[in-house]
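Sat 14:20. Reprocessing the chain from the morning session after the first attempt stalled halfway. Input below, unchanged.
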Amino acid sequence: MLSIRLSENEEKMLKMVANFEGVSVSQFVRNALDQKIDDLYDVKIGQEGLEKYQNGETKTFTYDEVFVNE
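Finished this time. Tokens:
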């Protein structure tokens, strides 16, 4: 269980958006949190991949090498 403090305006907006989405406030917050975690993980993996690419630690392939010359 988790509890957070919101201003009256934040709570009003949260309820309005959850209602617009057709879900409970709890479900809306769970969905939003899950999406945020996924986004942060994707950014982290992308940054690590970019660093490996920039450091020459990965091999790259052209489209033709991957799909045309199967």
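Helices lie at 8-21, 25-54, 63-68.
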